[in-house]
Amino acid sequence: MTLSNRAWFALFLVAALVAFGLGLLTMGLAGRQSEVPGGQRTFVTPIGDQERDPAIWGINFPLEYRNWRRPSPALPTASTASAELFSGYGFARDFNRTRSGYPEGLHPASCLDCHEPRSMKLRVGRKAFIDALSRRGIEIAKASDQDLRTYLCAQCHSTYAFGKDEALDFPHEKGLKSEEVLKALDARQTADWTHPGSGAPMLKLRGPSYELWSQGIHASRGVTCTDCHMPYVREEGSRIASHQLHRPLRNPLEAQCAPCHRWPEGELKARVQDIRARHQELEQRAEAALVSAHRAMAHHPDPEARRLLRQAQAHWDFVASEGSGGFHAPQEAARNLALAIDLARQAELRVRSSSPAP
Ligand code: HEC
Ligand code: HEC
Ligand code: HEC
Ligand code: HEC
Q1: Which of 76, 89, 90, 99 is an S-S bond match for 193, by CB 3.0 to 4.6 Å?
Q2: 161, 169 Cβ separation under 8 angstroms
Q3: With a 6 A CB cut-off, is 107 part of the ligand 2 pocket?
Q4: Which H or E element spans position 96?
Q5: H or E element: which one contains 233?
Q6: CATH 1.20.140.10 given to domain 122-252+262-350
Q7: Measuring from atom 12 of ligand 1, which residue has the nearest CA?
């Protein structure tokens, strides 16, 4: 039996397709491998254990370095924090505001904060955060890659307190929900400052993105910070994880959200902006209630009213200092603002009903 020309040609086609497919597969695997941190590496220049200068890391990893250096385009920042609410508070004490020495537009984390210098493996640089995890019974050495990607960001994007000797300390031991965090702060008896209007001992919340995210639908589905904030981008023709670490609205959202949501760009943007707008409306109402309570309490040194107002403003600040405009957990953010409004009005009612009629 002989094969016809046609059959030979068909066989040849099948073989060629198989070979081509295998080639693609191995190329794909090789591409994947170079994206996974932790592989064996040869360095152009060795990176010292304590090397904080990204330029030195950049000699070995020019693409990530150049991408990290690319300044983020300016976005209007919606700063709604009313100056009156922070009256008497000095921001100088905050770690995150004093630490960054990089030019405007660059994210302040250094390569060393997230990578092991020899292997480039992901690692959490801040020991205080590792300690806080272990107080919650979480061993960093056993963390999954996905959890590690969250902790990388959470080591800085969590609220913090000042422990003994002004050391960095995370109030996470009771849990990540706002009430639990506030309880942990109360237990430390931290009054960050006394408000000169109402005389209330106040708490300053400091950007609890990790905590708010943990209460949302994305966290409960295992969607982590890097899924949305480090999308794959092209840098000089190569595909790398974006190292600009900026707000998603600065990139086309499709790059970040489309792997999971099949919504067109316009709808994605609208969903984020819609959440922001509703959040802002509630936030402004909470600010008005807080300002009104501080003023009403000016001549009424009532400890219970002060306690209520301290809690009210802490719930507001929990989401106001967080910065995602409620996006990380919209319902939870709204709940905090509702609590802020209610507690502030309770504080005001207390002093108004106890003061003699004019
Ligand atoms: C805030 C944390 C963070 C910072 C800061 C950071 N990286 Fe990364 N980097 C990551 C994450 C996360 C990934 C992996 C993406 C993934 O798989 O999720 C990554 C991936 C990489 C990779 C590819 C992984 C590999 O093994 O090939 C390189 C190279 C790299 N980073 C270099 C750098 C350099 C150079 C700097 C400093 C200029 C830097 N990174 C700063 C978090 C960070
Ligand atoms: C070493 C500390 C540190 C680490 C680690 C870190 N950040 Fe930041 N990040 C900061 C500070 C400080 C700012 C500036 C905050 C401010 O303006 O109050 C910032 C700003 C941001 C912003 C706002 C930038 C903008 O465009 O306005 C985003 C988004 C962000 N970080 C995301 C991340 C993500 C995602 C990770 C993890 C992959 C991460 N950060 C890891 C310290 C850190
Ligand atoms: C599902 C996607 C998604 C996930 C997951 C996510 N973020 Fe965001 N994040 C956003 C969006 C959307 C915004 C705000 C919209 C904008 O302005 O781009 C934002 C805003 C931010 C900001 C900006 C705050 C500012 O002041 O400008 C920071 C910081 C941040 N996220 C950190 C984190 C951290 C840390 C995690 C993980 C614990 C995380 N995000 C998880 C989508 C996400
Ligand atoms: C890794 C996957 C993943 C990524 C990336 C992701 N999401 Fe989601 N998102 C989910 C899942 C899962 C849900 C839960 C709803 C569901 O199961 O359909 C969800 C829900 C939502 C919801 C509904 C929230 C609610 O409370 O009902 C919005 C809005 C949303 N995502 C917006 C975004 C935006 C905007 C981005 C990009 C900045 C983004 N998502 C990125 C997986 C993702």
Answers
A1: 89
A2: yes
A3: yes
A4: helix 95-99
A5: strand 232-235
A6: yes
A7: 149
pLDDT value at 358 more than 60: no
Give the amino acid at 38.
Answer: G
280 lines ligand 2 (CB under 6 A): no
Q: 150 CA to middle of ligand 2, Å?
A: 12
User: Over 60: is that where the pLDDT of 38 sits?
Assistant: no
Query: Which element (helix H / strand E) includes 202?
Result: strand 201-202
Instruction: Please compute, for residue 237, the number of CA atoms within 13 A of its CA located in the half-sphere on the CB side.
Output: 0
The domain limits of the chain are 122-252+262-350
**Does residue 29 register a pLDDT over 50?**
no
Minimum-distance ligand 4 atom for the alpha carbon of 256: 37
- Residue 187 tokens read as 């237990």
Residues in the chain: 358
Q: Do 115 and 123 contact (CB within 8 A), yes or no?
A: yes
Strand ranges, E, within 99-162: 161-162
* Cβ atoms 188, 320 nearer than 8 A: no
pTM: 0.89
